[in-house]
Design a protein that fits this description.
The complex is a heterodimer of chains A (325) and B (491).
Chain A lengths: L19 H17 L6 H26 L7 H16 L6 H24 L5 H19 L10 H8 L1 E5 L3 E4 H18 L1 H11 L1 H5 L5 H27 L9 H11 L11 H20 L7 H19 L4
Antiparallel strand pairs in A: 1-2
Chain B lengths: L1 E10 L2 E11 L4 E5 L6 H8 L7 E6 L2 E3 L4 H7 L1 E4 L11 H5 L6 E2 L2 E2 L1 H14 L16 H14 L4 E5 L7 H16 L3 E5 L3 H7 L2 E6 L2 E7 L5 H9 L19 E9 L6 E6 L3 E6 L5 H8 L7 E6 L2 E3 L4 H6 L2 E4 L3 H5 L6 H12 L6 H14 L16 H13 L5 E5 L7 H16 L3 E5 L3 H7 L2 E6 L2 E7 L4 H9 L4
Parallel strand pairs in B: 3-10, 3-11, 6-9, 9-10, 15-20, 15-21, 18-19, 19-20
Antiparallel strand pairs in B: 1-2, 1-4, 4-5, 7-8, 11-12, 13-14, 13-16, 16-17, 21-22
Helix pairs in contact in B: 12-14, 14-15
The chains are: A mainly alpha (325), B alpha/beta (491).
């Protein structure tokens, strides 16, 4: 058709799945924040903001591995809740139990990811259903186990990861531990995506048939993605438990925040396109947007609606711009 | 009836057509050939109203026309039959043929009239019996194509454009299409016939226009030219010999792979031996088990009975990965669905199999460097190894897939239609790679529906029929020998 060019296709041609769009959005938001709340960009408050954003950035990275391989992980929010509640009950205020419980949180989160992966790939249950089931099982189990209200408390040693910082650092002011954790893990994630595993993971998401016929173990590769998502949720649980404390709401809705962040970062739902850095920047952008809304006096209760709108808009834009080949 | 004068078209500043002249007379089959990217599809879209030309004029039936869209061109009498069909699978044949201009009686669609007219139309095409009241989805590919043509004729098309009409057809269906094309021609319809298959062009056309890089190289009378001359025009150089030389008896080594009594759902009692240094062609009709054979050897749909030996030792090829570990590689006929990873780069695509098998961190950069060399050696034309592969032509995509396997040094290489839908220049490069693999000591199995290719490339030919090996032919066999075995005329 002569009029096949839609308005969206005429946007400047940037590499699909590239980082430019999310960097532009992030930049615009920073400018808006600077206008409305100049103090926010002072080193101290900026660093605190980055530290606060650490859990969602980690969850976005975890979700990225799963989405880019062509699947979904809806269980991460309730996994965070479950881990926070379980950790509190197991530690019960005893500092000595901190490290064993930290290890347990991470290992058991990886195990939950493993179960998600095995059910999805070997039993061929669509991941949407698998992880939805896992979400319900985790929520139900943790309510059942704690008789309806969280028991025990986290030790101060456990909580420091989420709320302490190196104070009086030159230039930066304060550097939250959480920020260091997320920086290290983000770097690992980026390196991982440049490795053989990372490139293969993306290939699996784009064309599982071609990957399999090139000798890729598709089921195993996808299962590892679920394990990584689980581990990311475990680390996020440790940071969030420290920051905001123990409650049944600790992780609620985080799976959708993570998916929104990933999509915002230019990662295609359905797999095969996008960068892990984009997903993490997407998370940062989402948090910045909510901060801006907060400064502008918009109620936080509108968050889910905003996330929903972002998902729909981002997917519509990418669908309109990718050729229908 | 149709006359193009100095038609030009640019996209984003790139000239894809430059001063092209083209005439089609009533009752003439005019073939248009050229490599991928020569401008054939753009030209067809201009004629059929898909694009407006930037320069030049389109004169149809004595009037200079500027179509504002395909719909207007159709109404004017220009029909186009695309490679991909545009039929609605759940509607009936008649509904598809008269889609958008159904016969109407008292404001309602006159179904009886529509069925009658469709039957009459199909009969006039000599198309043979067809259930006009059945959903199109139940028809075979060849019948759908007939419906597609009928759809154009229902709008009184006087010029019919056919874009690679045989690409999806099995060999015996091609004959039916030929008959239809000739009949339409005899009824005074002008046909523009775009095809990669030169044999078809010689069978059908009165004149041939060669496009290269957006320009018309020449228009010749079919009777006054030869394949060699045409190929020379298309690629702008001589493809000396066209096929690389065969293996000398001394080059053929020991048996590498043996299949005894191999069978599964699609294959029965397959006995096969592949020797080092030899290219074994596999002929047969579509559905005869050619692809099933390659897929069984590669572990995609493994043999469930019988035995496979590699180097005299039994191997169990239960998955593609197991096949790769044994040194077997496979290039699927479905390049888009099973070959390339469309949105990854050329380099990522080329490294896919090597990465799947794994390797040490330290070997990585060396492996990448080797792959860059290899991509250069097989002459992949791209804007760099980081370009997404979907932007490459089919031929270059296929070269990347070849590089993926060459890097692993396979001992047994299975090709399923390695040059289907690929332009002449790249086809020749792929033939060279196939032959070089054999010379380097691999055992090569090559499936092809293109008989000249099968005969030109193979050191011997295995012909399949109904899931069994119908017979074997030596190099130098004729097309007739292959077809006779394939259809069961001899046993």
């Amino acid at each position: 058709m002569t009029t096949g060019d839609t308005l969206l296709r005429r946007l400047p041609r940037v590499r699909a799945g590239g980082l430019l769009p999310i960097l532009v959005i992030l930049g615009v938001l920073l400018i808006l924040v600077a206008i409305r709340q100049p103090g926010f960009l002072a080193p101290g408050s900026l660093m605190s903001f980055l530290g606060r954003s650490a859990p969602i950035i980690l969850l976005a990275a975890g979700q990225y591995f799963v989405i880019v391989s062509g699947e979904f992980d809806l269980s991460v929010g309730s996994l965070v809740t479950a881990q926070v509640v379980i950790a509190a009950r197991l530690i019960d205020g005893e500092p000595d139990r901190t490290w064993p419980v930290v290890a347990l949180v991470i290992v058991s989160s990886a195990f939950v990811g493993l179960v998600n992966g095995v059910i999805t790939t070997w039993l061929r249950v669509p991941s949407f259903i698998t992880t939805l089931g896992m979400l319900l099982i985790l929520v139900g189990a943790v309510y059942f186990w704690s008789d309806g209200s969280p028991k025990g408390e986290l030790s101060e040693q456990f909580r420091r990861f989420g709320r302490r910082a190196f104070e009086d650092v030159p230039v930066f002011g304060r550097v939250p531990y959480a920020l260091l954790v997320v920086l290290v893990l983000a770097l690992l994630a980026i390196v991982l995506m440049r490795s053989d595993f990372g490139r293969t993971l993306v290939a699996v998401g784009d064309s599982p048939r071609a990957a399999e016929l090139s000798g890729v173990r598709v089921a195993r590769t996808r299962t590892i993605a679920f394990v990584l998502s689980g581990v990311a949720a475990g680390v996020a649980a440790i940071l969030l438990g420290g920051y905001s404390g123990v409650s049944f709401q600790a992780g609620s809705g985080l799976e959708f925040s993570a998916i929104t962040a990933v999509v915002l970062g230019g990662v295609a739902l359905g797999g095969g396109r996008g960068a892990v850095l984009g997903a993490m920047l997407g998370a940062l952008t989402l948090e910045l947007l909510f901060a801006l809304m907060n400064f502008s006096g918009v109620s936080g209760t509108v968050r889910p609606a905003v996330q929903g709108a972002i998902i729909l808009l981002a997917v519509a834009v990418s669908a309109a711009r990718s050729p229908s080949d | 009836m149709l006359a193009l004068r100095a038609v030009g078209k640019s996209f984003l500043g790139v000239r894809v057509l430059d001063g092209v002249d083209l005439d089609v007379a009533p009752g003439e089959v005019h073939a248009v050939v050229g490599e991928n990217g020569a401008g054939k599809s753009t030209l067809m879209k201009i004629i059929s109203g898909g694009y407006a030309p930037d320069e030049g004029s389109v004169v149809f039936a004595g009037e200079t026309r500027t179509f504002r869209g395909p719909r207007e061109a159709r109404r004017a009498g220009i029909g186009i039959i695309h490679q991909e069909f545009t039929l609605l699978p759940d509607r009936t044949v008649a509904e598809n043929v008269y889609l958008g201009h159904e016969p109407v009686r008292r404001g309602l669609v006159d179904r009886r009239e529509m069925l009658a007219r469709t039957s009459a139309l199909l009969a006039s095409m000599g198309a043979g019996p067809m259930p006009v009241d059945a959903p199109v989805g139940r028809l075979g590919i060849a019948q759908r194509q007939v419906v597609e043509i009928a759809k154009a004729l229902a709008l009184d098309a006087r010029l019919l454009i056919m874009d690679e009409p045989t690409a999806a057809l099995a060999d015996h269906e091609v004959e039916l299409l030929y008959a239809l094309v000739r009949r339409l021609r005899d009824q005074g319809i002008g046909l523009l016939y775009v095809s990669h298959r030169l044999a078809e062009v010689f069978d059908l056309s009165e004149r041939i226009t060669v496009l290269k890089d957006g320009r018309r190289v020449t228009t010749v009378r079919t009777a006054q030219t030869t394949t060699d001359e045409l190929v020379r025009h298309m690629v702008g150089r001589d493809l000396s010999g066209y096929y690389p030389g065969r293996a000398a008896p001394a080059d053929v080594g020991p048996v590498l792979l043996t299949v005894r009594g191999g069978g599964n759902r699609k294959l029965h009692d397959v006995d096969l031996r592949l020797r080092a240094g030899e290219v074994v062609g596999v002929g047969g009709l579509q559905g005869s088990g050619r692809s099933a054979l390659a897929r069984a050897l590669f572990g995609v749909a493994p043999f469930t009975t019988g035995q496979v030996d590699l180097d005299g030792k039994p191997v169990r090829v239960v998955s593609p990965r197991a096949a790769m570990r044994a040194g077997i590689a496979y290039v699927s006929e479905d390049r888009k669905g099973e070959g390339i990873v469309a949105r990854q780069s050329v380099l990522d695509n080329a490294l896919l199999a090597g990465r799947a098998i794994g390797g040490s961190w330290s070997g990585r950069s060396a492996r990448t460097a080797r792959m860059r060399d290899l991509l250069g050696a097989v002459d992949v034309r791209s804007a760099g190894v980081d370009q997404e592969i979907r932007f490459l032509s089919g031929g270059n995509q296929q070269k990347v897939v070849l590089a993926r396997w060459l890097a692993l040094g396979p001992r047994v290489m299975l090709f399923d239609e390695p040059t289907r839908g690929i332009d002449v220049g790249a086809t020749s490069a792929i033939h060279d790679v196939v032959r070089r693999l054999a010379r380097d000591g691999a055992a090569v199995l090559m499936i092809s529906s293109d008989l000249p290719e099968l005969l030109g490339m193979s050191d011997r030919i295995v012909v399949m029929r109904e899931g069994r090996i119908a017979g074997e032919l030596p190099a130098g066999a004729s097309e007739a020998d292959v077809v006779a075995l394939a259809v069961g005329a001899v046993t």
